[in-house]
């Protein structure tokens, strides 16, 4: 971490301690999202970290961004996720949008005034994303969208949605990507999911019933939507990895703090070697995950994203988050299982990190495909 990153994260820690931490236990219980917290993060300058200043972003690197997400996630995984999905939408608009689309939609997203959401999954196409059924039929002046998207992070609180829909035949080549706005006629929100974790981040169904999307809201050209989605997900996966690191780090911090004060058998439980081995493994895995996330972030900063590394970072960091948070509950014992301490919340929030932006089984599929291709190239 360089001097700038140290200053950035230590002042952001303070912001999160003052503005996020006091609400989390209550809001997790109530399932309450606070727009003022997100706008506060925007005013603080972390809702468009990697976007160029020209579009209102902070113009920082993906490595800086990884530290930002890690820091927010130490206080709230759901708010870090809201920032990360909105940032993925920004990166899609930046990389695949035309000049007009960037000018129109980016400033409100980078400033944190609005939230962005990404709509790929459907009830029958999660991992097999190219098999989606939502259609976008060409009509005069644009497209008519029909279908339902499922499990959409920030559904209902976001204003700008990147929606993948079928304009052509079967498979990836028949998919196109569109910009759809909350309030567009024919676009409504379906059921809000009741979830194990991420309680402060709404997850909704998106329903399109003869929703007209003007031609100017098509991203790139017809048939390029799957590439748009996959390109966005490379970045999104590194971001989820960074959130996994923050989630694990908080669980580790809580475990060390507790085990140094909790006395059993006339000594701090930290002094038992069994616990020291556990804490050492938790710390080592967290640090290894951080290094992988930063290695993947470096590839994004270089301008040539390494998809294999992005998937590896997501896989490693989110499996680590699950393991470390589960162990943290074990270290705290009975109280770890209650909401008196935050570790049970972080354990619940860790679980879905292994599922979103491609399950960790899909990350292994992506990694294996790269391994095979690399082998064939060098054979
Ligand atoms: N960046 C840009 N383009 C990519 C890409 C990437 N990382 N990965 C694949 N593509 C392109 C391919 O190059 C191909 O395009 P061309 O035919 O023009 O070359 C196209 O996308 C289809 O790729 P592929 O044949 O590999 O598609 P598959 O149907 O086999 O699917 C997986 C590949 C399984 C990896 C993909 O469906 C996937 O990631 N699924 C998980 C979806 C997901 O993450 N959902 C979470 C939603 S957000 S909670």
UniProtKB/TrEMBL annotation:
Domain Acyl-CoA dehydrogenase/oxidase C-terminal, first and last residues per copy: 223-371
SUPFAM superfamilies membership: Acyl-CoA dehydrogenase C-terminal domain-like (SSF47203), Acyl-CoA dehydrogenase NM domain-like (SSF56645)
Residue ranges annotated for the Acyl-CoA dehydrogenase/oxidase N-terminal domain, each copy included: 3-113
Any one GO molecular function term: acyl-CoA dehydrogenase activity
Pfam families per the UniProt record, alphabetical: Acyl-CoA_dh_1, Acyl-CoA_dh_M, Acyl-CoA_dh_N
Enzyme Commission numbers on file: 1.3.8.10
Domain Acyl-CoA oxidase/dehydrogenase middle: 117-211
Tree of life domain: Bacteria
Database matches in InterPro entries: Acyl-CoA_DH_CS, Acyl-CoA_Oxase/DH_mid-dom, Acyl-CoA_Oxase/DH_mid-dom_sf, AcylCo_DH-like_C, AcylCo_DH/oxidase_C, AcylCoA_DH/ox_N, AcylCoA_DH/ox_N_sf, AcylCoA_DH/oxidase_NM_dom_sf
Family annotation (Gene3D superfamilies): Acyl-CoA dehydrogenase/oxidase, N-terminal domain (1.10.540.10), Butyryl-CoA Dehydrogenase, subunit A, domain 2 (2.40.110.10), Butyryl-CoA Dehydrogenase, subunit A, domain 3 (1.20.140.10)
Necessary cofactors: FAD
Enzyme class: oxidoreductase
Keywords: FAD, Flavoprotein, Oxidoreductase
Similarity comment text for this entry: Belongs to the acyl-CoA dehydrogenase family.
Listed name of the protein: Cyclohex-1-ene-1-carbonyl-CoA dehydrogenase
Native source species: Peredibacter starrii
Taxon lineage: Bacteria, Pseudomonadati, Bdellovibrionota, Bacteriovoracia, Bacteriovoracales
């Amino acid at each position: 971490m360089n001097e700038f990153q140290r200053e950035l994260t230590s002042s952001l820690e303070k912001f999160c301690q003052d503005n996020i931490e006091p609400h989390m236990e209550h809001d997790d219980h109530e399932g309450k999202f606070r727009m003022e917290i997100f706008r506060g993060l925007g005013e603080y300058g972390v809702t468009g970290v990697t976007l160029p200043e020209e579009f209102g972003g902070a113009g920082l690197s993906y490595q800086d961004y990884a530290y930002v997400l890690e820091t927010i996630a130490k206080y709230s995984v759901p708010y870090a996720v809201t920032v990360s999905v909105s940032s993925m939408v920004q990166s899609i608009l930046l990389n695949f949008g035309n000049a007009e689309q960037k000018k129109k939609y980016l400033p409100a997203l980078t400033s944190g005034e609005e939230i962005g959401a990404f709509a790929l999954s459907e009830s029958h196409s999660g991992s097999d994303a190219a098999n989606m059924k939502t259609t976008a039929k060409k009509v005069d002046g644009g497209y008519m969208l029909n279908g339902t998207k499922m499990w959409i992070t920030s559904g209902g609180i976001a204003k700008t949605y990147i929606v993948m829909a079928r304009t052509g035949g079967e498979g990836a080549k028949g998919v196109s990507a569109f910009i759809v706005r909350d309030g567009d006629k024919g676009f409504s929100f379906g059921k809000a999911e009741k979830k194990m974790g991420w309680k402060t981040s709404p997850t909704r169904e998106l329903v399109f019933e003869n929703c007209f999307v003007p031609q100017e809201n098509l991203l790139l050209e017809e048939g390029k939507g799957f590439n748009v989605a996959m390109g966005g997900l490379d970045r999104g996966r590194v971001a989820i990895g960074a959130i996994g690191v923050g989630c694990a780090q908080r669980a580790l911090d809580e475990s060390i703090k507790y085990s140094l004060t909790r006395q059993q058998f006339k000594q701090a439980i930290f002094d038992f070697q069994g616990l020291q081995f556990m804490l050492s493994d938790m710390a080592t895995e967290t640090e290894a995950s951080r290094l992988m996330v930063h290695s993947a972030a470096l590839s994004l900063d270089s301008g040539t994203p390494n998809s294999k590394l992005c998937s590896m970072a997501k896989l490693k960091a989110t499996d680590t988050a699950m393991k470390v948070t589960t162990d943290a509950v074990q270290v705290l014992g009975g109280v770890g299982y209650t909401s008196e301490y935050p570790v049970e919340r972080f354990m619940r929030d860790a679980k879905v990190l292994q599922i979103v932006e491609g399950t960790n089984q899909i990350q292994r599929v992506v990694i294996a495909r790269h391994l095979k291709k690399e082998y064939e190239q060098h054979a």
